[in-house]
Design goal:
It is globular and about 45 Å long. It has about 240 residues and is an alpha+beta fold. Helices cover about 25% and strands about 20% of the residues. Strands 1, 2, 3, 4, 5, 6, 7, 8 and 9 form a 9-stranded antiparallel sheet that branches. The chain folds into 2 domains: about 55 residues, no CATH class; about 170 residues, Glucose Permease (Domain IIA) (Distorted Sandwich), CATH 2.70.70. Helix 2 runs antiparallel to helix 3. The structure holds zinc ion (ZN). The site of zinc ion has 4 residues, from strand 1.
Length: about 240
């Protein structure tokens, strides 16, 4: 017991709460893979988010208000959002259902990539995925191979303490961000790609899948449609 306490104290002082971010990443993995009951997952989520918030401020995070949100695809504007925002379907979605959920509480933002090589056909360069908000990178999926059932592919999640919500960025070809990174709006998280069960299929045009989960009074996340925010950010 004493050994454990010493270890816990030491970890906290060395990492400034880094452990809670690592714990969150593990929780997200367990939810994704259906390895944890809904009850336990919700309890852990409620406990960890306030700790992650503390981690943000303890490690130099600076509040960025909603009006300063940045469009997530560098070099693109709001017109690249699929179906003028009508791709957002939150009905029946439960964050704690993980990879099983079939709703699409998200927006797909498409790049010019007819030959599906992840590279912009016009600029011949990869397309940067930028963080919309400030926050902490709390989950990263770096490994994905064709044949995997994982639909998000290579992805990362950023917790924004200002709006109290989670941004997920899916189907990346390369994830630059690391667990515990403190980001501001516009920081590059990774590159647009085609990873993920359906996104990899030839029928799917290359896109970023971005979702936002607002954390409610009860401490639990629910999808919120940020289409208007993306349009505003994607006009400038
Ligand atoms: Zn999508």
């Amino acid at each position: 017991m004493i050994k454990y306490l010493l270890f816990a104290l030491l970890s906290l002082s060395v990492t400034g709460g880094f452990i809670s971010v690592v714990d969150y990443d593990e929780l997200q993995g367990n939810i994704r893979e259906g390895k944890i009951s809904k009850d336990s997952a919700q309890r852990a989520f409620r406990r960890l988010i306030p700790e992650v918030k503390t981690y943000f401020y303890d490690n130099g995070g600076i509040d960025a208000p909603r009006e300063t949100w940045v469009f997530p695809l560098q070099g693109y504007d709001y017109k690249s959002i699929g179906d003028g925002g009508r791709g957002y379907v939150s009905r029946g979605f439960d964050f704690f259902d993980g990879n099983r959920s079939t709703a699409h509480p998200a927006h797909d933002i498409f790049i010019r990539d007819n030959d599906q090589d992840d590279v912009d056909d016009v600029t011949q360069a990869n397309v940067n995925i930028r963080s919309v908000s400030c926050g902490v990178v709390i989950s990263v999926v770096r490994d994905w191979e064709p044949g995997s059932e994982l639909r998000g592919g290579k992805s990362c999640v950023v917790y924004d303490p200002v709006s109290n919500g989670l941004f997920a960025y899916a189907h990346q070809s390369f994830v630059f961000s690391n667990i515990g990174d403190i980001v501001k709006p516009g920081d590059v998280l990774g590159l647009v790609g085609r990873t993920g069960k359906n996104a990899f299929a030839p029928r799917s045009p290359t896109h970023l899948h971005i979702s936002y989960m607002k954390i409610g009074e009860d401490g639990l996340p629910r999808p919120e449609n940020i289409y208007q925010d993306l349009v505003r950010a994607g006009r400038e």
